Here is the input.
Amino acid sequence: MSWVFQQDNAAVHNARLTKDFFRENNITLLDHPACSPDLNPIENIWGWMAREVYKNGHQFQTVDALCEAIFTTWSNVPTSLLETLASSMPKRIFEVINKNGGATHY
Here is the structure.
């Protein structure tokens, strides 16, 4: 099986260890220019989840407690959020086109 993987150009993704993993596992990386707009709505979900997990400045005493909070939050992502993000895709794409691939407000 041939794999092609897309990722942004965040520093952690460009680390030698990460690059070595992809090369050693024969995974092709899709060319993705630096500072390109992120059209992946999962980023919005990660942001929502982080705000929920750490709401009111909540801190966790154990990794298990943090994991439980993350899994509970993931299980409770509102359907309305998913629908809103999915329906925003045409606007996101239109904005990227209008800005010639430049930064968007998303």
